[in-house]
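User: ok so my PI wants both of these folded by tonight, can you help

Assistant: No problem, let's get them done. Here's the first:
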Amino acid sequence: MLHLPAAGYRTIAPDLRGYVRTNTPTSTADYTVFHIVIDLMCLLDALGLNQVFLVAYNWGASIAWNFCLLLPNRIKALVNMSVVFRPRNPVRKPIESMRKVFGNDYYICRF
Protein backbone atom coordinates (compact mmCIF):
# COMPACT_ATOMS: atom_id res chain seq x y z
CA MET A 1 0.00 0.00 0.00
CA LEU A 2 2.98 2.31 0.33
CA HIS A 3 3.81 2.24 -3.38
CA LEU A 4 0.34 3.14 -4.65
CA PRO A 5 0.16 6.63 -3.07
CA ALA A 6 3.61 7.34 -4.51
CA ALA A 7 2.12 6.56 -7.93
CA GLY A 8 -0.78 8.97 -7.34
CA TYR A 9 -3.40 6.55 -6.02
CA ARG A 10 -5.31 6.89 -2.78
CA THR A 11 -5.41 3.82 -0.53
CA ILE A 12 -7.74 3.07 2.36
CA ALA A 13 -7.47 0.08 4.68
CA PRO A 14 -10.30 0.37 7.22
CA ASP A 15 -10.56 -1.68 10.38
CA LEU A 16 -13.90 -3.39 9.86
CA ARG A 17 -16.60 -3.86 12.47
CA GLY A 18 -15.36 -6.42 14.98
CA TYR A 19 -11.88 -6.72 13.46
CA VAL A 20 -8.47 -5.54 14.68
CA ARG A 21 -8.87 -2.58 17.05
CA THR A 22 -12.62 -2.05 16.67
CA ASN A 23 -15.27 -3.00 19.18
CA THR A 24 -17.05 -6.28 18.56
CA PRO A 25 -20.84 -5.94 18.48
CA THR A 26 -22.49 -7.71 21.41
CA SER A 27 -25.20 -9.20 19.22
CA THR A 28 -24.38 -11.33 16.19
CA ALA A 29 -27.41 -9.72 14.54
CA ASP A 30 -25.34 -6.51 14.37
CA TYR A 31 -22.41 -8.23 12.72
CA THR A 32 -23.61 -9.31 9.29
CA VAL A 33 -22.02 -8.72 5.91
CA PHE A 34 -24.82 -6.22 5.28
CA HIS A 35 -23.73 -4.15 8.28
CA ILE A 36 -20.12 -4.19 7.12
CA VAL A 37 -21.10 -3.17 3.57
CA ILE A 38 -23.13 -0.26 4.97
CA ASP A 39 -20.18 0.71 7.19
CA LEU A 40 -17.96 0.82 4.09
CA MET A 41 -20.55 2.84 2.18
CA CYS A 42 -20.68 5.36 5.02
CA LEU A 43 -16.88 5.55 5.07
CA LEU A 44 -16.81 6.30 1.34
CA ASP A 45 -19.53 8.92 1.82
CA ALA A 46 -17.56 10.55 4.65
CA LEU A 47 -14.47 10.65 2.43
CA GLY A 48 -16.46 12.06 -0.49
CA LEU A 49 -15.73 9.08 -2.76
CA ASN A 50 -18.47 8.11 -5.21
CA GLN A 51 -16.68 5.12 -6.74
CA VAL A 52 -13.68 3.00 -5.80
CA PHE A 53 -11.38 0.37 -7.23
CA LEU A 54 -11.82 -2.32 -4.57
CA VAL A 55 -9.11 -4.84 -3.70
CA ALA A 56 -9.81 -7.58 -1.16
CA TYR A 57 -7.98 -10.59 0.19
CA ASN A 58 -9.09 -13.80 1.86
CA TRP A 59 -12.19 -13.26 4.08
CA GLY A 60 -12.49 -9.72 2.74
CA ALA A 61 -13.39 -11.21 -0.64
CA SER A 62 -16.86 -12.15 0.58
CA ILE A 63 -17.43 -8.62 1.83
CA ALA A 64 -16.17 -7.18 -1.47
CA TRP A 65 -18.48 -9.41 -3.55
CA ASN A 66 -21.44 -8.39 -1.44
CA PHE A 67 -20.42 -4.73 -1.72
CA CYS A 68 -20.44 -5.09 -5.52
CA LEU A 69 -23.76 -6.95 -5.54
CA LEU A 70 -25.48 -4.48 -3.20
CA LEU A 71 -23.88 -1.22 -4.39
CA PRO A 72 -22.75 -1.76 -8.00
CA ASN A 73 -22.82 1.99 -8.73
CA ARG A 74 -20.05 2.55 -6.14
CA ILE A 75 -17.51 0.21 -7.82
CA LYS A 76 -15.13 0.99 -10.68
CA ALA A 77 -13.50 -2.44 -10.56
CA LEU A 78 -12.90 -5.34 -8.18
CA VAL A 79 -9.85 -7.51 -7.55
CA ASN A 80 -10.25 -10.38 -5.10
CA MET A 81 -7.18 -12.39 -4.23
CA SER A 82 -7.01 -15.95 -2.92
CA VAL A 83 -10.72 -16.80 -2.90
CA VAL A 84 -12.98 -17.72 -5.83
CA PHE A 85 -16.54 -16.45 -6.17
CA ARG A 86 -19.25 -19.03 -5.62
CA PRO A 87 -22.80 -17.76 -5.98
CA ARG A 88 -25.27 -18.67 -3.27
CA ASN A 89 -27.22 -21.86 -3.87
CA PRO A 90 -30.88 -20.93 -3.24
CA VAL A 91 -31.75 -24.55 -2.46
CA ARG A 92 -29.01 -25.50 -0.02
CA LYS A 93 -27.87 -23.66 3.12
CA PRO A 94 -24.10 -22.95 3.29
CA ILE A 95 -23.48 -24.81 6.56
CA GLU A 96 -25.36 -27.86 5.28
CA SER A 97 -23.21 -27.81 2.13
CA MET A 98 -19.99 -27.55 4.14
CA ARG A 99 -21.12 -30.31 6.48
CA LYS A 100 -21.76 -32.64 3.51
CA VAL A 101 -18.36 -31.93 1.98
CA PHE A 102 -16.14 -31.56 5.07
CA GLY A 103 -18.08 -33.28 7.88
CA ASN A 104 -19.18 -32.10 11.31
CA ASP A 105 -15.61 -31.48 12.50
CA TYR A 106 -15.02 -28.69 9.95
CA TYR A 107 -14.43 -25.53 11.98
CA ILE A 108 -17.33 -23.55 10.50
CA CYS A 109 -19.78 -26.39 11.21
CA ARG A 110 -18.91 -26.34 14.91
CA PHE A 111 -20.59 -22.99 15.62
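One down. Here's the second:
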Amino acid sequence: MASKYAFAKPLKELRFHLCQTSPSSTSLRSFLQRAYPVMKKHNPYIPILIREAQGVSPQVIARFEYGKEVKLPLDGVTDKELETTIEKLVMTPP
Protein backbone atom coordinates (compact mmCIF):
# COMPACT_ATOMS: atom_id res chain seq x y z
CA MET A 1 0.00 0.00 0.00
CA ALA A 2 1.43 3.38 -0.99
CA SER A 3 1.63 6.03 1.67
CA LYS A 4 0.32 9.52 1.04
CA TYR A 5 3.74 10.76 2.13
CA ALA A 6 5.74 8.62 -0.29
CA PHE A 7 7.19 11.21 -2.65
CA ALA A 8 7.44 11.03 -6.44
CA LYS A 9 10.81 9.93 -7.78
CA PRO A 10 11.66 13.28 -9.49
CA LEU A 11 11.46 15.13 -6.13
CA LYS A 12 14.96 15.92 -4.89
CA GLU A 13 14.35 18.21 -1.89
CA LEU A 14 11.49 19.64 0.16
CA ARG A 15 11.94 22.87 2.15
CA PHE A 16 9.55 24.43 4.63
CA HIS A 17 9.97 28.07 5.67
CA LEU A 18 8.10 29.26 8.76
CA CYS A 19 8.15 31.59 11.75
CA GLN A 20 8.46 30.10 15.24
CA THR A 21 5.91 32.48 16.80
CA SER A 22 3.71 33.87 14.04
CA PRO A 23 0.00 32.91 14.01
CA SER A 24 0.19 32.49 10.22
CA SER A 25 2.66 29.61 10.69
CA THR A 26 0.61 27.77 13.34
CA SER A 27 -0.94 25.23 10.99
CA LEU A 28 2.42 24.51 9.31
CA ARG A 29 4.10 23.99 12.69
CA SER A 30 1.43 21.54 13.81
CA PHE A 31 1.52 19.75 10.43
CA LEU A 32 5.29 19.31 10.64
CA GLN A 33 5.16 18.03 14.21
CA ARG A 34 2.65 15.41 13.12
CA ALA A 35 3.80 14.52 9.60
CA TYR A 36 7.59 14.99 9.53
CA PRO A 37 8.44 11.61 11.14
CA VAL A 38 6.15 9.79 8.69
CA MET A 39 7.50 11.69 5.66
CA LYS A 40 11.10 10.98 6.69
CA LYS A 41 10.35 7.30 7.35
CA HIS A 42 8.92 6.82 3.84
CA ASN A 43 11.56 9.00 2.13
CA PRO A 44 14.85 8.48 4.00
CA TYR A 45 17.07 9.69 1.14
CA ILE A 46 15.19 12.89 0.26
CA PRO A 47 16.26 15.97 2.26
CA ILE A 48 13.33 17.53 4.12
CA LEU A 49 14.52 20.89 5.40
CA ILE A 50 12.77 23.06 7.97
CA ARG A 51 13.92 26.67 8.02
CA GLU A 52 12.71 28.83 10.88
CA ALA A 53 13.15 32.60 10.86
CA GLN A 54 11.44 35.44 12.68
CA GLY A 55 8.71 37.14 10.65
CA VAL A 56 8.88 34.82 7.64
CA SER A 57 5.69 33.92 5.79
CA PRO A 58 5.02 30.17 5.73
CA GLN A 59 5.84 28.51 2.42
CA VAL A 60 6.96 25.22 0.95
CA ILE A 61 9.51 24.83 -1.82
CA ALA A 62 9.91 21.59 -3.74
CA ARG A 63 12.99 21.05 -5.89
CA PHE A 64 12.66 18.51 -8.68
CA GLU A 65 15.00 17.04 -11.27
CA TYR A 66 16.99 19.46 -13.44
CA GLY A 67 16.77 22.20 -10.79
CA LYS A 68 13.08 23.00 -11.29
CA GLU A 69 11.52 24.50 -8.16
CA VAL A 70 7.92 25.05 -7.18
CA LYS A 71 7.19 27.52 -4.38
CA LEU A 72 3.78 27.68 -2.69
CA PRO A 73 2.78 30.25 -0.07
CA LEU A 74 0.95 28.74 2.91
CA ASP A 75 -0.51 31.88 4.54
CA GLY A 76 -3.97 31.27 5.95
CA VAL A 77 -4.05 27.60 4.97
CA THR A 78 -5.80 25.22 7.39
CA ASP A 79 -4.17 22.00 8.54
CA LYS A 80 -6.36 19.86 6.26
CA GLU A 81 -5.77 22.10 3.22
CA LEU A 82 -2.07 22.05 4.00
CA GLU A 83 -1.99 18.27 3.92
CA THR A 84 -3.69 18.05 0.52
CA THR A 85 -1.49 20.86 -0.87
CA ILE A 86 1.73 19.13 0.19
CA GLU A 87 0.48 15.77 -1.08
CA LYS A 88 -0.30 17.20 -4.54
CA LEU A 89 3.01 19.08 -4.66
CA VAL A 90 5.25 16.11 -3.92
CA MET A 91 3.40 13.73 -6.23
CA THR A 92 3.15 15.99 -9.30
CA PRO A 93 6.43 17.11 -10.86
CA PRO A 94 6.35 20.40 -12.81
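The first strand starts at residue 11 and ends at 18. The longest helix spans residues 26-42. Good luck tonight!
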